[in-house]
Amino acid sequence: EVAEPLQDLKEGMDQLERNKTLTYILTTLLAIGNFLNGSNAKGFELSYLEKVPEVKDTVHKQSLLHHACSIVVEKFPDSTDLYSEIGAITRLTKVDFDQLQDNLTQMERRCKASWDHLKVIAKHEMKPALKQKLSDFLKDCAERIIILKIVHRRIINRFHAFLLFLGHPIYAVREVSIHRFSKILSEFALEYRTTRERVLQQKQKRANHRERNKTRGKMITDSGKFGGASSDAQESQSPGIQSADDAAEHENMKAILKTGLTDGESSTSTVPGLRSRTRGGSLRGRVAPWCSASDDLVNCTDDTADEIMERIVRSATQGPSQRTLPRERRRSRLNRKSIRRTLKSGLTTEEANALGLSSGSELQV
After folding, report:
1. Which residues pair with 56 in a beta bridge?
2. Tens digits of per-residue pLDDT, 71-128?
3. What is the rounded CA–CA span in Å between residue 239 and residue 250?
4. Three-class secondary structure of residue 175 per DSSP
5. pLDDT tens figures, 188-231
């Protein structure tokens, strides 16, 4: 009940004194506070750490702890989450040092009372062996209590010196409670660890977003993941094209396509399925010149295929230069009239005679 909390207090002070992350955080908070307040303060009270998560900016509504954590992560990559490095301070939050001092005082008082009780019992009938055992036990307890009192006093003095190291004024050192001191640091370290994890996640998301933007709009073969495969495929295809038989076949096909496409006057082409148009001269002015026989076979084949494809697309999408007049509707040679209109307006004498109708006769079938 007494020795373990004192040991945790000693370890906790050593952890805080050697911790670089705590130094980075306090330095950053002091710089931010001086900038916002327009002052040049040398330090701030430890209780201000409780208000850091509550102070927020007016634009993004992010806490001051979030901004400080972002700066620490960016400026000091070797910083940690702080909470995992001060386990002794976290254990001190469950200890009441005022009650610990009372327990130590009560043990000392009870040990003295036990000596008095042993003297009273020893006056009456008591075996020497039992008396010796009780005496040895009480001596050992007294020595332990005396040592604990010395250790307690020295650790408390060392804690006061540690507060002076942190910048506390001399008159306020003895007023600081160990329980409250450890609670402030432990809760702040827990908040800092949570905020740091959130900041690192946002940083990773932004990095992934920038990486996606680099490859946005590009073909899949342009990215580094598939670039090697495409280049290997092209390299594997080039030797096959440049073999002896294929080279002769490509040379022959190139000559046929060249003569068939450049001859604009001929009505038929030597290439089956390729129709020559009368506007070949005008198109030929806009088409890039064909490759010569001395050019590379692969490049000529690609250019030839591109030119053929371009001519096919143009011939399919371009309408005729002169459109024929709209087809007129064939009219009957006879000047026919509608039956309804005929019945309404009546027939003339010539029309009645032509139809075989007389004025007083019926329709002759």
Report:
1. 63
2. 999 999 888 888 988 889 999 988 888 888 888 889 889 998 988 888 888 877 778 8
3. 14
4. coil
5. 999 999 999 999 998 888 888 888 888 776 655 555 555 554 45
Tokens 């899949």 found at: 220
Q: What is the mean pLDDT of the chain?
A: 76
C-alpha span between 167 and 176 (Å, rounded): 13
- The secondary structure of 265-307, three-state, reads CCCECCCCCCECCCCHHHHHHHCCCCCCCCCCHHHHHHHHHHH
Say whether pTM exceeds 0.90. Answer: no
At 106, list the tokens.
């009560």
Structure tokens at 219: 């073909």
DSSP secondary structure letter of residue 320: P
100 close to 1: Cβ distance less than 8 angstroms? yes
Q: How confident is the model at residue 361 (pLDDT cuts 50, 70, 90)?
A: very low
pLDDT over 70 percentage in the chain: 69
- Cα separation values, 38 from 30, 31, 32, 223, Å: 12, 10, 10, 50
Contact residues for 250 (Cβ-Cβ < 8 A; gap 6+):
241, 297, 300, 301
What is the C-alpha to C-alpha distance for residues 26 and 194, in angstroms, rounded to an integer? 17
When computed from its CA atoms, the radius of gyration of the chain, rounded to whole angstroms, is 52
What is the DSSP annotation of 58-123? SSS--BHHHHHHHHHHHH-TT---SGGG-HHHHHHTT--HHHHHHHHHHHHHHHHHHHHHHHHHHH
Q: Which two tokens stand for residue 326?
A: 């709209």
